[in-house]
Design brief:
17 helices, mainly alpha, about 0% strand, about 280 residues
């Protein structure tokens, strides 16, 4: 298996280097939203104008503003009111993340199914990231949510590569192993190419390093714990990870035994978090 992974890694990186396999680019609406975010003179009206041109993202932003985790005294039906509730920073991060959904599509039915499954899981993890960040850290919930949405972005070029290599596509077990082994490295490359914030660029590779050593909690820690939470009680191998050995829990100030106690106490809010971006 390691030989297959090493072969795919070498071929994949060579293809990217030679522009035979192009790394995905941010959708136009995401680029425009980022321009607004970086413009100190821009305001809610400017952001509403850009997002309003994409009906799907506008509807999702309104849905997020009305989610149980963020809901105010009354339901919001207007985009501008949604932006006022969420704030510029949070809206920009969420809009950039949600714009990437259109990238999770493929011509092959099997690859398309895989991409949609990855996106669905990413939205669930992003919601949990928001919840954990709000309860457990002084980090920014908008950045934590974005980190959750992009944590497995590296799977896209790998699946595109698989579309051109039918033998790999037919062996789903090997394909899964290749994705798990390589998506972090490739994801870091994509986020660096996209010039994402420094604190998020290494999330794809670092969130799967369960025994990482460093002083302060960061967004990779939040994604690590959110990932484990999302698989709790499932048959996935991550459900059997020894939480006590995962260093992210200590940095976040969380009890590794939260699967029994805090998991139950937060179950309703956790469920709402997992559906917030879906």
């Amino acid at each position: 298996m390691n030989q297959v992974v090493d072969t795919v890694r070498q071929e994949l990186l060579e293809a990217i280097e030679a522009d035979r396999l192009v790394l995905p680019t941010l959708p136009e609406v995401a680029l425009k939203v980022r321009e607004i975010a970086e413009d100190s003179d821009a305001g809610i009206n400017d952001l509403a104008k850009v997002i309003g041109n994409d009906a799907a993202i506008a509807a999702r932003i309104i849905k997020v503003a009305n989610s149980p985790l963020l809901r105010g005294a009354k339901e919001i039906e207007d985009l501008k009111m949604a932006l006022m509730r969420l704030g510029m920073e949070y809206t920009c991060s969420i809009a950039i993340g949600l714009a990437m959904e259109q990238m999770f599509q493929a011509t092959s039915d099997m690859v398309d199914k895989r991409m949609r499954e990855i996106w669905s899981r990413s939205t669930e993890i992003a919601g949990i990231c928001h919840l954990l960040c709000k309860h457990c850290t002084k980090l920014r919930p908008d950045q934590a949510t974005l980190a959750g949405l992009v944590h497995k972005i590296g799977a896209l070029p790998i699946l595109s590569y698989a579309e051109e290599h039918p033998a790999l596509l037919k062996d789903s077990i090997t394909l899964d192993r290749v994705i798990e082994a390589l998506h972090g490295e490739v994801g870091d490359m994509i986020l660096e190419r996209w010039q994402f914030p420094e604190e998020i660029r290494k999330v794809p590779s670092q969130h799967v390093d369960f025994y990482r050593q460093q002083e302060k909690a960061d967004y990779a820690d939040i994604v690590t714990v959110a990932l484990l939470q999302s698989y709790m009680g499932s048959e996935n191998e991550l459900a059997n990870i020894d939480y006590a050995a995962v260093t992210a829990f200590a940095r976040l100030g969380l009890d590794p035994d939260m699967r029994e106690e805090e998991g139950e106490d937060l179950s309703a809010e956790m469920e709402a978090a997992m559906q917030m971006l879906g």
